[in-house]
Structures are given as C-alpha cells and as structure tokens.
Write the structure tokens for this entry.
Amino acid sequence: MKLIIHGGFFSESNTNQEVKKAKQEALKEIAEQGYKHLAAHTALETVVYTVHLLENCELFNAGTGSQIQSDGRIRLSASLMDGKTMKFSGVINVEEVKNPICIAEKLQNYEDKVLSGKGAQDFARESGFGYYNPEIPQRRWEYEQKLSGSIRKGTVGCVALDMAGNIAAGTSTGGKGFEIPGRVSDSATAAGNYANAFAGISCTGVGEDIVSGAIAAKIVTRVTDGMHLAQATEKTLDELKPIDGFAGVIGISASGEIYHADTHPYMVWALHDDQSEHAEVFE
C-alpha cells in the first residue's frame, strides 16, 4: 500500500515559517489518515477520502479556502480517475459546494462523467450536496488587496496504490485567483490528473502549462510503454523547458515506485507507505 499527496506550490513558504509549518503538519496528518483509510478501502475510495480532507483544510487552495476569481466569485474544479476501470470523472467551475471531489466520485456511475458550471451545480443539488460557501476571510482580504495571484499557485491531489494493486488519482483546485470567469483548470482534465493499471499522476502548478504539456496523461502513457516512473516524469517535465513551464507532479507506479518532481521549488508533498510507521513530509 502506498499513498502520496500534494498541497500545491507555496511561495509564502520562503518568508512565513509559521504558515509553512502549519501546512506541513496538516499534510502529515492528512497523509496518515489517508493511509489508515487505505488499509480497509480501495485506492479510489481512499483518494476521494484523502482529497476531501485536503479540501476541508482552509490552508490549501481547494474547497474551503479557495481563491476568488476576477468577478468576486469562487469556482471549484476537481477530477477523479480509477486506474482499474479507466473511468475519468470531474466537475469544472462548480459554485457553492464544499467537496467537488465527492461530486466527481458520484459522476463515476453516470454516462456523462464531466460536468461544468451550472450543470455541475444542478447535478450536485440533485445528488444531495447542499449549499456551502467556501470563502474564508483571508481570501477576501487577498482579493480586495489584489494579492491573490502572487500568493500561491496550486491545487491539492492524491495518488494511491491499494493492497489489490489498483491505482487511483484525484486532484482538486480553487483556481489561480483573479482568472477570467470560465477559465478551465488542468485539474479536471487528463492533463492534470490521470491513472491506469500502470501508474497514477496528480499535477499542480500553472494549469495552462500543464495542459500544454499533457503532463499527467503523457507520464502515465510513458510508464505504460515501459519507462520507469522517474524517467517518464523527468522526460515530460524537460519538455516544458522551452516555455519555462511551471508544474509539479506526484505519482505512483504499479511496481510501487513513488516519485515527485517540480520545475520550480516549494511544492509541498507527503507520502506514507508500508516501509514507514508515519507519514513523511517534504518540500
């Protein structure tokens, strides 16, 4: 059993040690809770559970505590992929919900698996997901001071390998802040979140760069074709250099290889596997 999570990129990690420590402690706790869940649940169930914990933590830019867009509204995106069934589901720019990853999970059982905007919100309400305002005072202050875009770039994500050898990946984001309403993040696309029987990948960074590089799907395809996860990841990120692409990656392969990489420093991530008693947090 293996589980890896990320909390996006934190530019304030350079200057605010208190914030940095709080995020590292939160990631460690969530990784440990997720790994405990994995012992009795599938990779898919564990990814949903773990990402929903990340969404509920206002320290991260997903779910509660998400960035505010240029028109003053918060729109959330998330996706989920089951490597065993090859089913991808997600929501794009859904408003007034608490856990978009849980809506993505619900959509796994529908023919129409990716919904956006009002359609996603209507589906959420019809499925029993009630009204929720994910805004926190810090985000409102950042929005009013026009600081959101410089505070952080990032999402949250999880990749898990269960005891049966199945892999799943999930990614959730509150966007980059001050974007044009309607802008689509990579997080609810196969570029930012992808898994099959060979590997699973969750990305963070600048969505446009990740989509341009088709990062998650490309890495998983290369692992499927015989590359080691590390080699596939580094080759894919190297291909972003001509555009100075901003991306971070976490992944697990079916052989149990765990890997992370980023093109810029300060992606914070944590992992837990059967080789350690507690989760480890890294930057």
